Amino acid sequence: MKPWILGLTGGIGSGKSAAANHFGSLGVHLVDADQAARWVVEPGRPALTHIVDRFGEQILQDDGVLDRAALRARIFQAPQERQWLEQLLHPLIREEMRNALDEARSPYAILVSPLLVESAAQRQMSQRVLVVDVPEQVQIQRTVQRDSVPEEQVRAILQAQASREERLRHAHDVLVNDRDLVWLQREVERLHDFYLTLQGGQS
C-alpha cells in the first residue's frame, strides 16, 4: 500500500528539523524540501546555470557552488528577483520531492518544508499537516543563537514566511515546542503511535 504523506512545517527556529529527525529515527521516510532545494542548484544542474546567467559569476563560491548567502541578500531586497527565482526553482523542487516520496516504504512518509503553508502545491502533496509551533520571541532567540545572525535578519525572514496564525489554520496537529529536546522527542513518539493507526492520514 502506498504510504500517506504528512506535511511537517514550522517557522524558522521552531525545531521542525529536530522533530523531523526524531520521526526519521523511528523509521519514517523523510523528504526535506530544503534538501531538494539544494539538490536542484548543485553544480552541473541546469537551474544553477540559469541563476548564474541572471545574477553573474559573483553568486558562486570559489569552488563553483552557489553562494546561498549572497543570493539571499540579493533577492531579499528585490521582490521581482525573488519571484523569478521561485518560478525557476519551485517546479524543479516539486519534481525532486515527488520522486523522493515515491521511494517511501514506511506506513506514512513526511514532507518537511518551511513553506508548506505558502505553497499550495506542497500542501496538495500532503494528506495531513503537523505544525511545530513556538512563540515568536523563542524563534528569534533560537535563530540568533544558532546562526549567529542579527535579530533584524531573523525578523525579515519571519516577515517573508507565513504568519504563525496562518500556519496554525492549516494544521491538523500542533506540537508546541517550547520545552527541551527530551520533551519534544516524547511528543514525536506519541504522534508517531497515533499516525500508525491512521488510514490515508485521516482519523
UniProtKB/TrEMBL annotation:
| Alphabetized CDD domains for the sequence | DPCK
List the top taxonomic levels of the source.
Bacteria, Pseudomonadati, Pseudomonadota, Gammaproteobacteria, Pseudomonadales
Q: What is this enzyme's EC?
A: 2.7.1.24
Which organism's genome codes for this protein? Pseudomonas linyingensis
Q: Which Pfam families match?
A: CoaE
Per its UniProt entry, which superkingdom is the organism in? Bacteria
Q: What does this protein do?
A: Catalyzes the phosphorylation of the 3'-hydroxyl group of dephosphocoenzyme A to form coenzyme A.
Listed binding positions for ATP are: 13-18
- Please identify the protein, giving its name as recorded: Dephospho-CoA kinase
Q: Which GO terms describe its biological process?
A: coenzyme A biosynthetic process
Q: What family classification does the UniProt entry report for this protein?
A: Belongs to the CoaE family.
